[in-house]
Specification:
Elements: H1 2-22, H2 35-41, E1 50-53, E2 56-59, E3 65-66, H3 70-73, E4 75-81, E5 84-92, E6 96-104, E7 111-120, E8 123-126, E9 131-136, E10 139-144, E11 157-162
Parallel strand pairs: 1-11
Antiparallel strand pairs: 1-2, 3-9, 4-5, 4-11, 5-6, 6-7, 7-8, 8-9, 9-10, 10-11
């Protein structure tokens, strides 16, 4: 009985302590998510858990992510999608990367979009432009939420493989 009373007392003390901390005047009245959580707000939709590998959709969890190293990320990448190509050129800057994505389809004009992304954590992003980049062992993953091209998916990541 004494153990039960002590356990109940401890639980009440924890709840009261947490409530007091949550109501402290020192805490701001509006709370913002940490930068990582803010970045992941947009890509959190269920369909963004998928990656386009050529013409196949695979789960994001199937890929082995590695930290983005701007020195080695520089270069050319490609994602072949049936008869069309998505090409990616990455150049490094002092605090991030410049990325040029070009969509090529036979007998159609190329559709190009440029991004300037900052290195953050293990990847690079330009959240105001809806652009996210992560590195894999074979290349990079890109998520374009506002690609401005109907043929470039906004519902899932695209896996670009490094050109030889």
């Amino acid at each position: 009985m004494n153990h039960r009373r002590a356990s109940i007392g401890l639980c009440v003390w924890i709840l009261v302590s947490q409530a007091a901390l949550g109501c402290s005047e020192e805490q701001p009245t509006t709370r913002t998510a940490p930068p990582q959580a803010q970045e992941q707000t947009a890509p959190a939709s269920p369909s963004v858990d998928s990656v386009l590998e050529g013409t196949d959709l695979v789960p994001f969890s199937n890929l082995e992510l590695v930290p983005l190293d701007p020195a080695t990320a520089r270069g050319s990448y490609v994602s072949e999608q049936g008869g069309s190509l998505l090409l990616l050129e990455i150049e490094t800057t002092a605090d991030g990367v410049n990325v040029r994505r070009t969509y090529q389809e036979p007998e159609q004009p190329d559709q190009t979009r440029n991004y300037t992304a900052r290195i953050e954590g293990d990847g690079a992003s330009a959240p105001s432009e809806g652009f996210y980049l992560r590195a894999t062992r074979q290349g990079v993953l890109v998520l374009e939420l506002s690609s401005q091209a109907d043929s470039v998916p906004k519902d899932y990541w695209v896996h670009y493989i490094r050109k030889s």
